[in-house]
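Usage

Read records sequentially. Each one opens with the input sequence:
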Amino acid sequence: MASPEALDALVVPGQARACRVATDELLLIAPAETDGAHLAREVTDRVVVGDPDALVLEVTDGWAARTLRGDGAREAFAHLSQLELPAEGFVQGDVAHVHVKILADGERLDLLVPAYWERHLRDRLLHEGPGVREVPA
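and closes with the structure output:
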């Protein structure tokens, strides 16, 4: 969390993806093997240059992800949400009555939820998403 100007100027480190969730809040999503504490320190060092009152939190353990992929991913998603998905990019809103953050990349949709909602989202995807099946990661 920082001023909009500081977030606009932030150079996002490594392979992290920046998702603007509010004018003064940015969510960084990085590959699973990323050291979250290191990433948080690096972002802190960068963002405080533009906003000395910025706050950076490492909250990896608080989130869970589910991925829909393949030709039917968007159709399955449409059974759970009225959100309009971009071809590529970030959107957030109601999915299966839970606030979800979605990274869209063609026929791949990464759905991020607070960890305590992961089971609910999984069950709804399997129950209501036509053609959805669970595949080991």
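Summary fields computed downstream for this record:
- The mean pLDDT is 93.
- The chain has four helices and six strands.
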